[in-house]
Design goal:
mainly alpha, Leucine-rich Repeat Variant, Serine Threonine Protein Phosphatase 5, Tetratricopeptide repeat, 13 helices, 0% strand
């Protein structure tokens, strides 16, 4: 089957999903018919609604290997594609590693969400020692360090996350917030600009950039 047909079928699935909001059924249907590679190609070059369907599907069908195609889609000219790609890329960031490592990451995320930062640091340290290529583990430890006001250590972990995953806009933005807390506005601005280049949809980051630019101009 040629790619036009493949795109047309995905469009049917996505249109029906919009009507039903049955994400589980959408994921099952896509998984039966599509490989991540095909979805990545449709995401890069399909019509607008097909790109949206591909961006949504890769959040469930795709693994960490879909990180770069989704990262590029964050700059798609269609806002819907950008929004869906952002949701999906956050999902694939958690799909590196084996099942045990992914489950441990889920625990660390939960610890951070409930502000148990010391426990999160302990668990994340164990995970990054075992899987130093797991960018999201570094990012989650960075978040825990931030919660403990250990900003220099958080910056170090954000850098590690970005070194492993250059599309990690969350780590870039997190580093900017750390520099702000340290009073280094120039470095914060640089980090926020990097985050916005990676993900132009970060409106809060855009506002922070504008505020910092005004502040730094006023100091000249």
């Amino acid at each position: 089957m040629g790619s036009p047909h493949r795109g047309a079928l995905l469009l049917v699935y996505y249109t029906e999903y919009l009507d039903t909001q049955d994400s589980a059924r959408f994921a099952r249907r896509v998984a039966r018919r599509y490989t991540p590679g095909t979805l990545e190609r449709l995401l890069a070059s399909g019509p607008r609604m097909v790109r949206r369907g591909a961006a949504l599907a890769l959040g469930t069908v795709g693994g960490y290997e879909s990180n770069a195609p989704l990262g590029r889609a964050l700059s798609d000219h269609d806002r819907g594609v950008r929004t869906l790609a952002e949701d999906s890329i956050r999902s694939v960031w958690c799909k590196a590693g084996n099942a045990s490592q992914r489950q441990r990451l889920t625990t660390i995320v939960r610890l951070n969400a409930t502000k148990r930062f010391r426990s999160a640091v302990t668990r994340a340290t164990e995970l990054v020692r075992e899987a130093p290529w797991f960018a999201e583990a570094w990012n989650q430890r960075a978040a825990a360090y931030y919660g403990l006001h250990r900003f220099a250590e958080s910056i170090g972990d954000c850098r590690e996350a970005l070194e492993i995953n250059p599309y990690h806009f969350g780590a870039a933005a997190g580093m900017g917030h750390c520099y702000l807390r340290l009073g280094n506005q120039a470095s914060a601005l640089e980090c926020f600009r990097r985050a916005l280049r990676l993900n132009p949809g970060l409106e809060g980051v855009r506002a922070s950039i504008q505020q910092l630019e005004r502040s730094l101009r006023g100091q000249q």
